[in-house]
Amino acid sequence: MSTQTPTVHAVPQLDVHAIRQQFPILGEKVHDRPLVFLDSAASAQKPNAVIDCMANTMRHQYANIHRGLHWMSERTTEAYEGVRDLVADFLNAPSREEIVFTRNSTEAINLVAHSFGALLKPGQAVLISQMEHHANLVPWQMLRDWAGIDLRVAPITDDGDLDIEAYKALLADGKVALVAITHMSNVLGTITPAKQIADMAHAAGAQVLFDGSQSVVHHKTDVQALGADFYTFTGHKLYGPTGIGVLWGRRDLLEQMPPFLGGGDMISTVTFEHSTWANIPHKFEAGTPAIVETIGLGAAIEWVNKIGFDGIAAHEADLTTHALQRLATVPGLNIVGHPRVRGGVVSFTMADVHPHDIATLLDRNGIAIRAGHHCAEPLMRRLGLSATARASFGIYTQKEEIDVLADTLVRIRDFFV
Amino acid sequence: MNTSTTERDALYDRLIVERARAPLYAGRFEEADARGDGRNPLCGDKTHLDIVLNGHHIQDIKHQTRGCAICTAAADLMAEHIRGGSVAQALELSGRFRAMLVEPPPSVVVDDQSASLGTLEVFAPLRSHKARIRCAELPWIALKEAFSHVDG
């Protein structure tokens, strides 16, 4: 960690107290202690803006979309399709038609594995990294097994950065058709050098997909500036509801790709013999979608936009620096991963105390963290660990909560050693 | 932990902490009549059992456990309890141990069987920590596997 203080520009300070007032759940107690929620990387809590928007949709303005000729359906369709515009703007996508709604990031990646995968030929390869979540690993293994493609894995350094030289070497034979890499590791906190990854992939004739599940929450995302071809994220980590995720894909790629799921809404014409497909994005949205959740995601994006990513990124960087400093003072604690650029996710282990025991004892003190392999078993193996404890921070996290975490960890260690 | 915290942490009885830190039956036997493995894919914990049998009599047992305090202590206390008994007795104890973890406590009739669980009762508070019951069950699952290769 550098102790140098970066030049501070006029970044708007977050009023964390006022923000917390908007999250009713943060007033709850767990085991008679105030909830200290340090598990936002698994799923973030929801502000009133999202809760009220979803409840009001169901109370006052709800019907199925895209098919009704009545007032309620038309209004609901407008609200639903309005979120597509919001998401396009949120990602700086060139057009709204390139935004496909999915259930979550996992489904978005599966969609690409299935439909982009259908365009691949045996001998071509997909390249992932050692720090992928199972969501960005298992779909490619499945594709490998039915399409006869190769699956390559770019190593990481001991610090938890992508090994760029090894990555370059894996691209060298020109057989990689798609690079699929996380934009921010859910275990190590590593923010990957996306632009560099994309430029190198393109130079080798490959497309690139970024799993943005962790990163969209922490800073402004611009898929065009990154040079991405596909980008995925999920609503529930962005203070929105579960059940709604997003795939952004370049128009020409989405247009070439066959549909993922078949059913209503994704067709142009249907006879018993044959069907033709709707235009993008509807080609990829079969059946009645998660209407209320999509509208809720829109509320979350508007809420985040209003706070602004300058303030959010500065707040979370500040929290992360504080956490790394405080946790370093806990006897026997080892931070897992020291990437060059990182977000608000800190994994750690403690000598002589298993991560699950840490999590249970923290919970008894009202502190919620995650422990386990974080859906990244191969990464755990690479790190020589079976599990880690992980604290992750959000817009509502306070430095005092990190202090409570560090103090409680000291007591837990005393208890076990 | 301070006193108030200790009260809430009844889950971690001192015996669990001690056996996790310094298990008495940890290790391997080169020669064993039955071996069993337990693995929890959710957390990566694993335990291996080496059992020396004399007929249907458990002469000795060692475990090699890589897991949390509850899993390690459960393996160690299981070894302590079944050592010197018969395979049938061990399996019967396994059933009562499981019942203690998953069944609601008897409200009217206090059965005399629960008393005979002895030090294994330190795991009873897990009943209200469903996410951690598997930790204590893992060595017993390994035991079942080990005995599945032994003629009843």
TrEMBL record, chain A:
Q: Does the keyword Glycoprotein apply?
A: no
Name the keywords, alphabetized.
Pyridoxal phosphate, Transferase
Tell me its EC number(s), please. 2.8.1.7
Q: Is Ribosomal protein one of the keywords? A: no
Q: Which Pfam families match?
A: Aminotran_5 (PF00266)
Catalytic activity, as annotated:
(sulfur carrier)-H + L-cysteine = (sulfur carrier)-SH + L-alanine
The kind of enzyme this is, by top-level EC class, is transferase
InterPro entries recorded: Aminotrans_V_dom, Cys_dSase_SufS, PyrdxlP-dep_Trfase, PyrdxlP-dep_Trfase_major, PyrdxlP-dep_Trfase_small
> Which family is it part of?
Belongs to the class-V pyridoxal-phosphate-dependent aminotransferase family. Csd subfamily.
All residue ranges annotated as the Aminotransferase class V domain in the record: 36-405
* Cofactor(s) in the UniProt record: pyridoxal 5'-phosphate
From the Swiss-Prot or TrEMBL record, give the protein name.
Answer: cysteine desulfurase
UniProtKB/TrEMBL annotation, chain B:
Give the CDD domains listed for this entry. Answer: IscU_like
Query: What InterPro entries does this protein's entry cite?
Result: NIF_FeS_clus_asmbl_NifU_N
Residue ranges that the Swiss-Prot or TrEMBL entry lists as coiled coil:
none
Q: Where is the NIF system FeS cluster assembly NifU N-terminal domain?
A: 12-96
Q: Which Pfam families match?
A: NifU_N (PF01592)
Could you tell me which PANTHER family the record lists for this protein? IRON-SULFUR CLUSTER ASSEMBLY ENZYME NIFU HOMOLOG (PTHR10093)
The molecule here is called: SUF system NifU family Fe-S cluster assembly protein
Protein source organism: Acetobacter lambici
